[in-house]
Amino acid sequence: MPELPEVETTRRHLAPVLEGARIVDVTLTRDRMARRNTRPVDVVDRLEGRLIGSVGRRGKFLLIDVEGDLTWVIHLGMSGRVRIAENPGEPRETHAHFTATTDRGPQVRLIDPRTFGFVAVFTPDELATDSLSLLGPDAWEDLPKAPTLHSRLTDRRVPLKALLLDQRELAGLGNIYADEVLFRAGVRPDRLAGSVTSPEVDRLLDAIPVVLAAGIESGGTSLDDLAYLLPDGRAGEFLSQLAVYGRAGQPCRRCGSAIERVIVAQRSSHFCPRCQT
DNA sequence: AACGATCCCTGTTGGC
DNA sequence: TGCCAACAGGGATCGT
Known about the structure:
Elements: H1 4-18, E1 23-28, H2 40-47, E2 52-58, E3 61-66, E4 70-75, E5 81-85, E6 96-102, E7 107-111, E8 118-122, H3 124-129, H4 146-153, H5 160-165, H6 175-185, H7 198-217, E9 260-264, E10 267-271
Antiparallel strand pairs: 1-6, 2-3, 3-4, 4-8, 5-7, 6-7, 9-10
The protein binds a DNA duplex through residues 1-3, 32, 60, 75-79, 95, 113-117, 131, 156-158, 162, 165, 167, 174-175, 223-226, 265-268.
């Protein structure tokens, strides 16, 4: 599941390929992938022939500056990945629904079997009215200070994990890294947000950059063959470092207790019953 | 307003 | 072996 570390890894691969390049051809073979634009054809028309500026990221969204005051948005959803084909002649992958060819040769492809991801090209007005504008601070670049986060938690009756997953509160954490952060902070995912103490807030804010840095350093988490891969086709290597996600029944790496799995906020959640309270 | 539930989509998995 | 229901989940949307 592409989360902040996977999207950041993708961004770092895309930047040298796209920045300063001109898009010479765009193909969209599945309209659903462009559903955020009023007309899917806008994605093609607004990219073709245009010069690309900086490749940025906010939360799990890639935000790419395009000549003409446009913003090219890519979201990977749950099964999306970017593939950089050095030669546009390379056979098109199954589920490669969108391609953009640069004047330098390489081709950027968006592959997404479940099509929960999307690609859009927004004018400033469209960007401002899209739900993108509701995104909270980026968990990597713009992590809030303890008093700010604590004030967002007080009086909230949702499970803490639900709040960590809410992209309007904090942008970037998904199901895997939320579980990993909660383990490192020693807090259960089903704890009510309003019950989190000051020391626990401090531990959460300490844990977030550590977990995200490790994920980025490893190139993200590739769960299986279907899942996320780096734009060069390699697998991310964070899977082997996961403390709790996907480890139900296995011994906690810290205390040896069996990792438990429960449903919180309609998502599978993994935690150590002894290390997390 | 806050919160929970449901839906979208399809490859994979597990039960019979 | 083959069939099929259940499952995975980010985010939008709807109901309470």
